[in-house]
Structure formats: structure tokens, C-alpha cells
Amino acid sequence: MSMMIGAETTSSVVNQTRGKKIAYWTVTLLLAAAVMLSGIGQLMQFGGNVELVKNLGYPLYVLTILGIWKVLGAIALVVPGFPRLKEWVHAGIFFLMTGAALSHAFANDYGDYGFALILPLSYAALNIASWALRPKSRKL
């Protein structure tokens, strides 16, 4: 009987570990894709990126800077190794996204239904979830 309980406990731990790993990769890949696409859009000045930056009062070259950092950050999130770099990327994404939300708030640019605040804060939340769920191999 005691071996049966031990086997059930081991199975439960394995399932929790597998579930956490799936949650981590789901959140992290979603975050990396969003950041990558956003960065590419900024580098190529797609959509309303130019208008958005001008409305917030930033110079146009900010799009190039943000785009490069976003693309590099998205890559760093998914490649194996480099745990210290991943810590910096998570910090950078958090500051970038909360800064974007604050920039919109201070410029009274909330977008339709607050979308200009909700979107970057959603990315910040995904970032926090990715950081919190990261496996031991991605921790310092």
C-alpha cells in the first residue's frame, strides 16, 4: 500500500511539473510572438506606429530603438541558456510595457475602451507570468 501512495505522489509531482512547463512555454511563446511582431511593426513603421509615437510626443527614431530591442528580447526569451540575459529581458519588457501604458495615460490617449492601456498592461502581465513560471534551468 505504501508503494502505491508513493507512486501516486510521484505521478502527481510529474503532472504538476509537466503542467507548469506547458503553462510556461504557452505564456512565453505568446509573449515572445507579441513582442517580436510589435518590434517588427515598429522597425517597418507599420500601421499607426508613426502616428502613435508622434501623438505621445516622442521622436520618430524611438521606433527604431524600441523595435530593435523588442526583436532581440523576443529572441533571447526563447533561446536556451543565458539565464541572466533572460532576467534583463523580463525586466526590460516590464519597464517597456508599463512605461507605454503610463505614456498613454499621461497623454490622455486611452484608445477605444482603454485599449491603449489594456494592451501593454496585458503584455506586462504575460511577462510576469512567464517569469514566475520559468523552469529551474532558466533561473539564476
Automatic annotation (TrEMBL):
Domain of life assignment: Bacteria
Spans through the membrane: 22-40, 60-79, 88-107, 113-133
Main subcellular location: membrane
Signal peptide positions on this chain: none
InterPro entries membership: DoxX (IPR032808), UCP030066 (IPR016944)
Membrane topology: Multi-pass membrane protein
Keywords of the record: Membrane, Transmembrane, Transmembrane helix
Subcellular location: Membrane
Pfam family of the protein (one): DoxX_2
Name of protein: DoxX family protein
